[in-house]
Amino acid sequence: MAALLQLADVTIRFGGLTAVSSLNLAIGPGELVGLIGPNGAGKTTAFNLITGVYQPTSGAITFNGQSTARLKAHQLARCGIARTFQNIRLFASLSVFDNVRAAVQLHRPHGIINALWRGRGFCEGEADVTRQVMELLEIFGLGAARDQAARSLPYGDQRRLEIVRALATRPKLLLLDEPAAGMNPTEKVELTRLIRFIQEKFQISVLLVEHDMRVVMGICERVAVLDYGVKIAEGTPESVRQNQKVIEAYLGDEVAVK
Amino acid sequence: MQTRAKRFLVLAILLAAGVSYCSAAFNRYYLGVAIDVGINIILAVSLNLINGHTGQFSLGHAGFMAVGGYTAAAITLALGPRAPGLLTGLWFAVALLAGGLLAAVAGLAVGIPTLRLRGDYLAIVTLGFGEIIRVILQNMECVGAASGLSGIPERTTLFWAFGLAAVTVYVVGCLVSSTYGRGFIAVHDDEIAASASGINPTRYKVTAFVIGAFFAGIAGGLFAHHKLFLSPTNFDFMKSIDIVVMVILGGMGRTGGVILAAIVLTLLPEFLRPFAEYRMIIYSLLIIGLMIARPQGLFGFGRRKTA
Q1: What are phi and psi of B300, to 5 degrees?
Q2: Does residue A56 lie within any of the structural domains?
Q3: Three-state DSSP class for B82?
Q4: Which residues of B touch A78 (CB under 8 A)?
Q5: A58 DSSP β-pair partners
Q6: C or N: which end of chain B has fewer Cβ atoms within 10 Å?
Q7: CA distance A25 to A4
Q8: Residue B167 at interface with chain A, using a CB cutoff of 8 Å
Q9: How far apart are CA A148 and CA A125, in angstroms?
Q10: What is the pLDDT of residues B126-167, one digit of tens each?
Q11: Structural domains counted in chain A
Q12: Comparing C-alpha atoms, which of B200, B229, B235 is closest to residue B54?
């Protein structure tokens, strides 16, 4: 099985600090992979490397057989990488509907001329967009809130809307940056269900960068553990749970007690 | 909804033509003020696309206006005197279009290198651009340098001013309400999230800048053929500020409010004429008062429309 996303010996240094050191990671189509590690382990840096915020000092990242070096964030989105943000970033002044609408247009050819001429093709295109957006919003139970301003949604709904917006770009790989941050246990359970549902329904790969053990261990098929920028373990949640290095570095008593 | 927009455009242009047809019956002074209103609507609505919708604080609108105004005036003067008629109208349209296009080119030239900047930095760069244009014009002998360009024939009528104002409103309105145009507001709200959603922020910003500059150029051409005299000081920093005030007072990103603000702020100084030298003081105080009473803009109570 050819990997969808492949990180080969990826290293990044900031001055004297090696934030991520020869990281190898492969994500296959339809896989749900977790990336965990204690604070400062380099999770977010790895995430930013994949999403093109940073360029690796050495090593290569390929997505769908294509190198992602020098691709900007919006070009990555076009290739099929969608992401959410640790601290939610919605288009605050736009409505729920328009938040998704802005992302749906990625795969449409209509531009300025069509928007001004307003011919038949344009009207059909806009109707099609509306249909797609509403379909997505209904799936995630946000249909009733379509005209609300995004900033007025409750926290959990904002997270969900951000995921819907990411899905609207029709990604092959969805990157979730600490989606459980700031959620209470009930919301976390709901989130777990949601992520699994997305993976099954949309048949996409998901990379979950997460702090919360329960969320990751509960749903990921494979987990990679970072510590001080080095991958110290990778495998099924069970094997990672048993791994001595991981217990020492991170899980510590949480697992030992259990 | 799409056809409604087109119907609005046709109706507005027809109305402008109709009223303009009877304009000989109007008082010359009122007619002049009315044309000023039309020109200011074009300026404010086009700047609103840049400052309000796309969130790029530009202080260079007077500069683009100057480019368009001088270009259009130069073309009309080069053509020499003409009797009023259809052909003259056509040449006027060509002159306006040329002014708009040259202003758009200027917008592109300024926009590409500077739109990587944000907020205050962009404001300062665009301010600098406006001043550069003014200084260049002040030293260009072929357009009269500091003594100004005079003898421009009167071509701007109510029809041109309000017809083109309607076109501006249509273009900006249609763009922003379309799915494509939601990208402008997305860039305004959160650039990082916009690019993660596949929107190219630089491209949107440059597009807004170019379209805004184009209409500022058109307004400049109308201004030139209305005042019949152009001087570089017409297009100084204060002119840009005037337009920015209209946008802010109208409520950033709200076309209806911005149109209303353009009307109010054009008429206000005229109504204050009886107060002679106190006029500008009262004007400033009124703006300060309005800003305190309605910081969200005159029309700022409604939410942005969905579709």
Answers
A1: -75, 10
A2: yes
A3: coil
A4: 198
A5: A11
A6: N
A7: 11
A8: no
A9: 23
A10: 999 999 999 999 888 887 777 888 888 888 888 999 999 999
A11: 1
A12: B200
What are the backbone angles phi and psi of residue B243, rounded to the nearest 5°?
-70, -40
Question: A156: left (phi > 0), else alpha (psi -120 to 50), else beta?
Answer: alpha
**What range does the domain containing A175 cover?**
5-80+171-257
The number of beta carbons lying within 10 Å of the beta carbon of residue B147 is 10
Q: Helix/strand/coil (H, E, C) string of B200-259?
A: CHHHHHHHHHHHHHHHHHHHHHHHHHHHCEECHHHHCHHHHHHHHHHHHHHCCCCHHHHH
- Report the candidate in B251, B138, B125, B193 with the shortest Cα–Cα distance to residue A163: B193
Question: Any CB–CB contact under 8 A between B4 and chain A?
Answer: no
Token duo for residue A203:
């048949």
Q: In which band, very low, low, confident or very high, does the pLDDT at B307 lie, cut at 50, 70 and 90?
A: very low
Rg (CA), chain B: 19
Looking at chain B, how many residues does it have?
A: 307
Residue B304's pLDDT band (boundaries 50, 70, 90)?
very low
SS3 B276: helix
CATH number where A239 lies: 3.40.50.300
In a domain, A202, yes or no: yes
| pLDDT tier at B306, thresholds 50, 70, 90 | very low
Say whether pLDDT at A218 is over 90. Answer: no
Q: How far apart are CA B74 and CA B40, in angstroms?
A: 22
Residue A135 in any domain: the answer is no
Locate tokens 């009124």: which residue? B286
A57, B187, B242 from B32: Cα distances, Å: 64, 38, 19
Closest Cα in chain B to A78? B198
Query: B219-250 b/e with 16+ CB inside 10 Å = b?
Result: bbbbbbbbbeebbbebbbeebbebbbbbbbbb
Q: Which residues of A make CB contacts under 8 Å with B?
A: 51, 72-74, 77-78, 82-83, 85, 89-95, 97-98, 101-106, 108, 110-112, 114-116, 118, 122-123, 125-126, 129-130, 146-147, 149, 165-166, 168-169
